[in-house]
Amino acid sequence: MENLKNKTAVITGGNSGIGYATAKQLKEQGANVIITGRRKEAIEKAALELDVTAIIADQSNISDIEKLAAQVKADFGSVDILFVNAGIAGLGTIEQTTVELYDNIMNVNLKGAFFTLSKFIPILKDGASVVFLSSNTASMPGPGSSVYSASKTALNSFMRSAALELAPRKIRVNSVSPGPTQTEVMNKVGLDETTVKGIMNVVVEKVPLKQMGRAEDVAQMVSYLSSDAAVFMTGADVIMDGGMSLG
User: Fold this and answer.
1) What angle do CA 211, 214, 135 make, to 5 degrees?
2) String of b and e for 30-58 (b: at least 16 CB within 10 Å)?
3) Considering just the CA atoms, what is the radius of gyration of the chain in Å?
4) What is the pLDDT of residues 120-143, one digit of tens each?
């Protein structure tokens, strides 16, 4: 079903996990997809596999974001779908959190996301869709995740302001807040399979639906929010966490 035919979509952090799954989904629906990331090899490998365009850009770096917007404008003219997906997690109690960890998380998840939208507004088409990747931790405080949760809560707050500011141009701005999702982040931490399985079992116990989310599920929601089916949705945060935040 090519219901996004000839639409131009930009996905930040598109080389793995949810970004990768979403690039695949939007491409299958006929969109011209551009993925970004800060690691040249990873982003180019992903783009080759997905048959999409890769642009190297680090979301925590404002001049990278400006160059990205300029390059997309030069090569594609305007943008129909912007998925601000790049984000990093980090754990630490408030007492242990270093200034460096705080800045790393906030610079990508909040400042980077904010200025990605800011710099792309001039090249968004009227009627475009903007989606932010948030997290169910925005509405579920947990010990050790204060900075990450705060970055996502603040993200949802400016998402709603953006929805109001861009409404006159019929640009819709929403966020998706997944719960625990099966992505390769777990394996990247260097844990062996048994440990990862153990962690997943503990997490799944906290989810009423007793399963982890899948990157593909989130991709389908981003695709839905970017389609005409969601033309009356703006300023919404869609929680996809198997009921976890109800507990």
Assistant:
1) 90
2) ebbbbbbbbeeebbeebbeebebbbbbbb
3) 17
4) 999 999 999 999 999 999 988 888
Written as six digits, the tokens of 43 are 């982003």
- 148 annotated active-site: yes
Question: Would you give per-residue pLDDT tens digits along the chain (247 residues)?
Answer: 678 899 999 999 999 999 999 999 999 999 999 999 999 999 999 999 999 999 999 999 999 999 999 999 999 999 999 999 999 988 899 999 999 999 999 999 999 999 999 999 999 999 999 999 999 999 888 889 999 999 999 999 999 999 999 999 999 999 999 998 886 555 556 667 787 778 788 888 889 999 999 999 999 999 999 999 999 999 999 999 999 999 7
Q: Find how far residue 234's CA is from the centre of its chain.
A: 16
Tokens representing residue 81 in the block: 């779908």
Euclidean distance between CA atoms 195 and 21, whole angstroms: 25
Nearest to 29 by CA among 6, 7, 4: 4
Most distant CA pair in the chain, distance: 52
Which tokens is 179 given?
Answer: 């719960």
How far is CA 204 from its chain centroid? Answer: 22
For residues 101 and 92, the answer to whether their CB atoms sit within 8 Å is yes
CA gap 31, 222 in Å, rounded: 13
- Six-digit token pair at 110? 């909040």
Which residues 6+ apart lie within 8 Å of 239 measured at CB? 136, 139, 177, 179, 245
One of 20, 102, 148, 224 is an active-site residue; which one? 148
CA–CA gap between residue 171 and residue 17 (Å, rounded): 26
Crossing angle of helices 146-166 and 113-120, in 10° steps, is: 20
